[in-house]
Amino acid sequence: xxxxxxxxxxxxxxxxxxxxxxxxxxxxxxxxxxxxxxxxxxxxxxxxxxxxxxxxxxxxxxxxxxxxxxxxxxxxxxxxxxxxxxxxxxxxxxxxxxxxxxxxxxxxxxxxxxxxxxxxxxxxxxxxxxxxxxxxxxxxxxxxxxxxxxxxxxxxxxxxxxxxxxxxxxxxxxxxxxxxxxxxxxxxxxxxxxxxxxxxxxxxxxxxxxxxxxxxxxxxxxxxxxxxxxxxxxxxxxxxxxxxxxxxxxxxxxxxxxxxxxxxxxxxxxxxxxxxxxxxxxxxxxxxxxxxxxxxxxxxxxxxxxxxxxx
Length: 311
What we know:
Layout (H helix, E strand, L loop, with lengths): L1 H13 L5 E5 L6 H17 L3 E5 L6 H8 L7 E5 L2 H4 L1 H4 L7 H4 E10 L2 E4 L8 H10 L5 E4 L5 H13 L4 E4 L3 H9 L5 E4 L4 H5 L4 E5 L26 E8 L4 H15 L2 H9 L3 E2 L4 H22 L5
């Protein structure tokens, strides 16, 4: 029994002994990718091993999620994902090749990511009230982009249409960055952006109308929330974080959680996440799991109401 009891501490003392791979299940340039890269450099310094980022996009995060679910449960392969893969995809897909709740374990939350209602500046409306009226008087003529069906920006867009009682065309992309490119080019009219468009907002290339969160963004304290603009209870926030294959030793998960939380306390990392309009979100694996469960109930109801299906 003494030998068995010593296995956990011994493993914790020897891990990590080689590079750690973090699979980001969305394209380069998106919020998940940028958050992963902001954390990876200081994390590898504290772990004293390289932390390698690999993007595996597709199927609203399922391709990267499955790759991690099928990886050895040894702490050397992690997933960085939006919470949607766990809280949204099981409602979105009739069949999945893996079960996120059973085949993955939460390691650490990384960031609470807000979504921002941004429009191309050529549109006449200058505030949310005017924008809602404009869309209603032009039903089906305006389009909005998202990183794909079931992504948090898409769900924000559907939540917006449901609560504002309007219709606009949804255009799904293979990531937030391609959607932003088309918004800047005027190919689509608006988007619920997960923070990567804020540089363009500051440059005057896009117009920021509102925040789809329960409270205002510290970056734009004068910009109202959609709740304040009249869409009561509007909350499209999501939490991004790290997962590992089910069966990853608990002591390794605990060590990863501690190191990621330590990294999230660094001012440079907090500033980078804040530049995306998000907030660093340290905490325990259990708290991360509880948030995912609450989001699953909330977004699952929206998916059923709006009859959202996967691409």
